[in-house]
Amino acid sequence: MQRFEALQKPTAIITGSIYLEHETGRHPESVGRLARFPQIIAELLAEETGHFISLEPQEAPLTQIARVHDASYLEDLRDFCESGGGRIDPDTHVSEGSYRTARYAVGGLLRGIEAVLVGEVQNTFALVRPPGHHALTNRSMGFCLFNNVALAARHLIEEYGLHRILIVDWDVHHGNGTQNIFYDDPRVLYYSSHQSPLYPGTGSLDEIGVGQGCGYNVNLPLPPGSGDTVMEQAFTRILEPLAERYEPEFILVSAGYDAHWRDALHTTALQVSTLGFATMVDRVKRLAETFCQGRLALTLEGGYDPAALADSVYATLRVLAGESPEKAASHDLRRSRRELPANHEYILALLEEIRKTHSL
Ligand SMILES: [Zn+2]
C-alpha cells in the first residue's frame, strides 16, 4: 500500500487573496508569483481523498509580532505604508496594504501551526507573502518585512513551552535575519543551505552561534551548480545527524524555491529540480515523523519563476500529504539535476569540514 493511503490526517494549505494586497509593482517579489496557486490548490482540494484542507489566514496580533520585532520598527513600517509606501530599503518595496498583509503572513503561518498542534492536521504549508527570513528585529531587508519563521519559533517557545525547534532553510539565499534572531539561543537550531557567494553575504560555515547558542547555527555555503545530489548529501551527512542529536519537538521550514534551476533572479544557480525539492520535503517529513509526531510547518520564502514555483509548491504539497517524491514531481519541471557538479570533490570536502565544525 502506498504511504499516501496510510496517512491519517490532512495537510493544511494556508492561502488567501489577502496576500495580493502587498503590491510591489515591477519587482521580482510581486503578486504574480502567486498567480498559478489558485488553480493548483483548487485541483488538490477537489480530490475526494481528504488529504488536503484549506485554512483561512488570520491577522497576527501586534503582541505576537513584538516577540521578535521592535515597537519602533512596527510603528515606522505602519506609518510608511499608510502614507502610500514606496521603497523602504534598497531592495524592498511596500504599498499601502503591505503592513496589514505582512501581519497576515505571520498570522497565516501561526494558524497552520495551531492546527498542527491541536491535531487537526498532520502538517501545513503557509503560502504567504511577503517572505520573512531576511527581516531583522528592527528593519526590513531583502523583500522581507516580518520574520515569519522566527515569529513561529517564538510562538512555539512562548505559547507552548517548546525548547527544541529545528528550522530548515533551503532558500537559495542565507536567512541572515533568522540566524541573527536566534544566534545566542539553543532553543532554535538553524540549518541553512544557500548559494555562496550571494546576497546577503552572510552565512559562512564559521558562523556557528554565540554563548548558549554556540553550535546551534549551521550554515552550508554551497557553490553554484551544486544540484539535487549535493542537497541530498547535505541532508544525509549534516541535517539528519544534527536532528538525531537535537531531537526537535517541532520542525519549521523556510521553503524558498529560488534554488530551482529555472529561477534566474540575479545569479542564483543552485540548480535544484522540482524532484530535488520534493525529495527534501520527503526527508524533512520523515525527520518530523521520527522525532516530533510529524509536526511540521512550511512557510514560503523566495521563488521568482512563477512556473517553477507553482510546480515545486504543487509537488511539495503532495509529498506533505504522503505521496512519493517521484510521483509528486511528475510534472514537466521534474527534470532531475542529479549529475555531479565538476567541483564535487571540493563540495564533499566542504561538507566534511562542516561536519567537523559541528562534531558530527
Ligand atoms: Zn531567496
Q: What's the layout of helices and strands?
A:
Layout: H1 3-6, E1 11-14, H2 37-46, E2 52-55, H3 62-65, H4 71-82, E3 86-87, E4 93-94, H5 98-117, E5 123-126, H6 148-160, E6 165-169, H7 176-181, E7 188-195, E8 217-222, H8 227-246, E9 250-255, H9 274-291, E10 296-300, H10 306-320, H11 325-328, H12 344-357
Parallel strand pairs: 1-2, 1-5, 5-10, 6-7, 6-9, 7-8, 9-10
Antiparallel strand pairs: 3-4
Zinc ion (ZN) binds at residues 171-173, 256, 258, 301-302.
Characterise the protein shown here.
It is a single chain. This protein is α/β, with parallel strands linked by helices. Helices cover 39% and strands 13% of the residues. The protein has one domain: Histone deacetylase domain (Arginase, Chain A, 3-Layer(aba) Sandwich). The protein has twelve helices and ten strands. Strand 6 (165-169), helix 7 and strand 7 (188-195) form a beta-alpha-beta unit. The relative contact order is 0.14. Residues 171-173, 256, 258, 301-302 line the site of zinc ion.
Task: Give keywords.
alpha/beta, 360 residues, binds zinc ion, Arginase, Chain A, disordered N terminus, 12 helices, two-stranded antiparallel sheet, 8-stranded parallel sheet, single chain
Broad shape? globular
What Rg do the Cα atoms give? 19 Å
Number of E-state strands: 10
- Please state the structural category: alpha/beta
The kinds of small molecule bound in this structure are:
zinc ion
The string of secondary-structure elements, in order, is HEHEHHEEHEHEHEEHEHEHHH
CATH architecture: 3-Layer(aba) Sandwich
- Identify the CATH class: Alpha Beta
Largest sheet: 8 strands, parallel
* Domains, number: 1
Helical fraction equals 25-40%
Walk across the major sheet and give the strand order: 2-1-5-10-9-6-7-8
- Low-pLDDT residue spans: 1-5
Terminal CA distance: 36 Å
Query: So, the CATH homologous superfamily?
Result: Histone deacetylase domain
CATH topology: Arginase, Chain A
Name the beta content range.
5-15%
User: Residue-averaged pLDDT, rounded?
Assistant: 95
Tally of DSSP helical segments: 12
